[in-house]
Amino acid sequence: MRRLLIAGNWKMNASMDTSSALLSELVNADIRACDIAVFPPFPYLALAADCLRASTVRFGAQDCSDQASGAYTGEVSAEMLRDVGASMVIVGHSERRQRHAETDELILEKVQRVLAADMTAIVCVGETLSQRQAGVAEQTVTQQLSLLLSQLSLVQWQRVVIAYEPVWAIGTGETASPEQAQAIHGHIRQLLAQVAAPLAEQTRILYGGSVKSASAAELFAQPDIDGALVGGASLDAAEFLAICQS
Ligand code: PGA
Prior knowledge:
Strand 3, helix 3 (78-83) and strand 4 (88-91) form a beta-alpha-beta unit. Strands 1-2-3-4-5-6-7-8 form an eight-stranded parallel β-barrel, surrounded by six helices. It contains twelve helices and eight strands. The chain has 246 residues and is an alpha/beta fold. The model has no long low-confidence stretch (mean pLDDT 97). Bound molecules: 2-phosphoglycolic acid.
């Protein structure tokens, strides 16, 4: 049985004060029905480590370097994230694929770094609006996952979570319908099954893209949706907790 994971991606939002307030609300809510993780911006990770010390809420980073260490100005390594207490890293978010031209090859390198540092990688995939309109949503996601499927071992996959985030649904207020999301999630599950049956059974596939408390329960009722990667709604404690409670 796959346990639901609700992950809050704060993106480049919040301040020291608002981070601290949001983290305390999550700690006080003490929800145990699902796994919860938050992804604050880098400068607030140490604060998250402090606030979440006695909590079941986990925290992680929104990106990491594909390099281990050295002369890479402005970059942060997976080892450093582990050092500060992070247990997860989001890799290949569409905002990074688009703004920083991240390729599937680079994303594989980053995932390898995250896994080598004993953390979990949440790998994001998803089609753009024009790809959906052209009828190549499944093909796009297949392509984005193909290197990972061919290069990672079954043991490594135990620490990989996939997040399906249609680009047209991110930050737009337009959620994929439960049927649209389930169709792609089912397709991803089949790709995993082609590698090995246990992979399909174990791997969590999150949906992301304008998830709100009003749409969460219906999404989570789909057989292949194992939680959500929540952006905007994760900045509002009440809304994020309501999603967790769904
Ligand atoms: P959103 O973002 O919930 O604001 O659409 C989701 C994401 O980009 O992870």
